[in-house]
# Entry
Amino acid sequence: MEENIVESKNREIPAFLSWWQGGNRYEDNVSEDGIKLQLDFEKNALYGDKIWAQLYSGIKISYISGYEIFGNHKPLNLEIGIGNGEFIANMAAYKPEENFIGVEVFKKIFKLAEKRANKNETGNIKIIQFDAALILRLMRENTLSNVYVNFPDPWPKKKHKRRRLLKPDFMQLIVSRLKKGGLMQIATDHDDYAEEINENIKEVQGIKSIYDTSFVRKVDDYFPTKYYRKFVQEEGAYFFRYEKL
Ligand SMILES: C[S@@+](CC[C@H](N)C(=O)[O-])C[C@H]1O[C@@H](n2cnc3c(N)ncnc32)[C@H](O)[C@@H]1O
# Structure
């Protein structure tokens, strides 16, 4: 993680990134008539260096469609913080009729995900090593079928809590990219983070839990990831699944 933060301190930062890379994620620099970023995937993976090389302070960027990435109009799903890629690789194999984009900011883990993604034979997975705050913004509004955030970093220390990803504005950004009926799917094993998500989600407009409650403690259709196996199997996690109205 340090690697990316140090890198960001040494350059002028465009303002659409999350705290990770020193930016302010709330400023909007993406529109219909900006510069098209070249998403030059090597097989199924794209490293952040290739994106950084195209960025400069004040840049205006154009949206990117699923068609430009995959060459077809299959339903589009996004996973934020894919870690070693287990979840997204399984989902892509399980649902070949849909496309999956995965985003992971941490390069070392991304390399593991790359190996998995490159074994995929259905052509429906692409992964990007960058800050999800930008990649989400690059997606047009009302286009995603599902956005998954599995076991986001809990930042347990009090002074680090501000780094947590699932603030109301970030969740509202997720929801803006979902199409009607699309789902924001969040899993965490962390009690305090679950409590914060539960509070923050009340501030997000235009969504409704698919359950009678805000979250459930068990689901039977989840691909177990490293974190799931490590922390959750016995105690259960918190699963939030909210539908865009
Ligand atoms: C606790 S891990 C969980 C990994 C995986 N989802 C799993 O369930 O095994 C959280 C991951 O989110 C990534 N992450 C955190 N902030 C991110 C951001 N802004 N954009 C992309 N990835 C991010 C971290 O690098 C880390 O790999």
About this structure: Strands lie at 30-31, 45-46, 61-62, 76-80, 99-103, 125-128, 144-150, 178-188, 207-209, 238-244.
